[in-house]
Write a structure and sequence with these properties.
- It is built from 20 helices and 30 strands.
- With 755 residues, the chain is α/β, with parallel strands linked by helices.
- The protein has five domains: 118 residues, PriA, 3(prime) DNA-binding domain (GIY-YIG endonuclease, 3-Layer(aba) Sandwich); 65 residues, Winged helix-like DNA-binding domain superfamily/Winged helix DNA-binding domain (Arc Repressor Mutant, subunit A), CATH 1.10.10; 198 residues, P-loop containing nucleotide triphosphate hydrolases (Rossmann fold, 3-Layer(aba) Sandwich), CATH 3.40.50; 184 residues, P-loop containing nucleotide triphosphate hydrolases (Rossmann fold); 95 residues, Ribosomal protein S10 (Alpha-Beta Plaits, 2-Layer Sandwich), CATH 3.30.70.
- The strands form seven sheets. It has a seven-stranded parallel sheet, sandwiched between helices. Strands 16-26-25-17-24-23 form a six-stranded parallel sheet, with helices on both faces. Strands 2-1-4-3-5 form a five-stranded antiparallel sheet.
Length: 755
Amino acid sequence: MAATVFADVAVPLPIHQLFSYLVPDALQADARPGVRVLVPFGNRRLIGILVRVHEEANAPSGDGLQLKPVFSVLDRVPLIGPRLLELGAWVSSYYLAPPGEAFRVMLPPGLLARSVMTDQEHCWPLRKQLAVVRVTSGSETALSSKQEQAFEKVKAASLPLLLAEALQLGCTSAVLRTLAAKGLLEIATVEVERSPWSTVHVQPGEVRRHVLNEEQRSAFSQIEQALSAGSFRSLVLHGVTGSGKTEVYLNAVNEALGRRRTALLLVPEIGLTPQVARYFQTWFKNEAAILHSGLSDGERFDQWLRIKQGDSRVVIGTRSAVFAPLENPGLLIVDEEHDGSYKQEETPRYHARDTAIKRAQLENAVVVLGSATPQLETYYLATSRGQHGYHRLASRIQERPLPTVRLVDMRIEFQNRGRAAVISQILEDSIRLRLEQGQQVLVLLNRRGYSPLLLCRSCGSTEACNQCSISLTYHQESKRLCCHYCGYSRAVPKSCANCGKQYLFFVGEGTERIEELLRERFPEARLARLDRDTVQRRGRMTGILSEFAAGNIDLLVGTQMIAKGHDFPGVTLVGVLAAEQSLRLADFRSAERTFQLLLQVAGRAGRGDQPGEVIIQSYFPNHYSVKYACAQDYARFFQEEIEFRRRFRYPPFAALANIIITGKDRGRTEQLSSDVLRVLTEERRLWSHEERMRFLGPAPAARERLRGDFRFQILVKTTSRPELHRVLEATLTRAKDIEGQGKGISVDVDPVNLL
């Protein structure tokens, strides 16, 4: 008699547990961990991931799902391999995320469905089907003049020829079918891979291989030694902007492939992917694949399938590419490891850098964390605790100097002009000089729109979003007030909604306003803007960056998107407006973010043959983050910031978790947050101590209302990470019994954004 077999399944729902099902005898041969299974769930049919197969009858099960049978196994081979199954379990446990949500982000869109009506809906998406026309070796036969003309056109064309292209040549479908019937042509349906490489635009000779300098060779040697050991190792590559980190990455990836391992490179922004991909495609040809959210669903699936089938051994991608189905990865590189874009702000709230480190541990691989401005915790763990290897690239390639930096005190500018100025005279004169010399200029203002505030000068009220506790930003192009969080917009009112008077006044400037000012002052310059508003259309970001790199744009104004990792040899001047803006945010990382942004954008200047200059405008010129960014001195910034963190017990001297409580009714949400605090306090008595674990709150979040939901938060600070997880796990388990079944409660472990 066959043994009774059970399957523990992760379903794609926000539920913090696996569900157990019986595996019918006919399915037992195919029921392997990592395959998708179709299972009953209440009155629905769901597609889940089979996580574990066993013969014990004590697996977890949900109400109403007592030992129901699996309907079917959907895959011939597991979609998620053993190491990725372990990684998904770790993401679920460490970030306190539902297991189904953790596994969902590992797969292309559509492979896990929350509701399935028919058996056909669980099929994989097909590759694109197209009809092509081919010339065959058929014998000559009598042809009409139209048939002969069509046949000659097809023979003269580049083959294989798409049927649609043949029709565009003037061939009719009837004539083509006749030629096929005569055996001269073949019309066939083929699968076509949807490739994103057409947007990369690699030009012949554009990317050259360079001989590594002494610092680069030393860094590569460390990585090479780690790869040869065949065990887990983490390394921090701390290189000033323009020091050639990418060239080290390329050589390291080549070394990993030579050892029959695969490799992954993570970048923080979609806009960086094409630029980096140019280098990787030149080196590794068809072995390179791209994964990021800017691809169509079809492109993402086809790239994922290439990786899964082993056709691509090198992957370049953004955050979610950390889960790429590479077999035997030996090298994982996280470029710009400090960047906040690596943190997912929705469930599962994983951090791609830390997830890459965990994956490297599971795979006995090497992980390289690269940055010109490492996250403070990363630098501390490498240099003070020895948890990572550390290598410094202190010089730019070809002995190019770092840019000179000038700090403009905007308080003095105000005194000299008698009014507030957006662009200082020093910056304006420098822009004019650089343009006259045929050089390129970047201007950074990390704020979108035309004006961030519409103020009534009679009563002092501002126009705010009706779904979020956020002021509406005015956009000149659309002539509307917009919320940058929920997308709500409305026309500009003629009078104040509060007092009815017509003393409405736009306050402050965004990139749209700066673009207008620069066009007025430099009418001959070829100018473009790069921010979230200008790149909403697919391919627009790549287009703007490509035009700028080609020298077809003289002056580029933008948000932090222009600061990250771009290599523009023609840029000799960078101007920074409102450098202190991020210091006003109620977040303990605000100084670090300010320093990183200023140092990163400064690094865009002087990467070519001409020396670079940076002009930073600030009303807080004496703040240490601004001062040390101007000095381009990471070490001195670190020393000052680390003492602040030590004094107030922030990372790396404490572990944090942010508990967010949301709801439609403010009073009930506030009460729910008080109930959560009570449970936290009770669990702390069992698992920790008040001296080791503190709770801040509950308090309204800095952005108290978003998308119609009121938000309260409780910040947990502790010196013991194991105790943190015990308390949080116990609290979430009990939260099911709190009002609303705990649906409005979420936890962000190691939060990057506290707003």
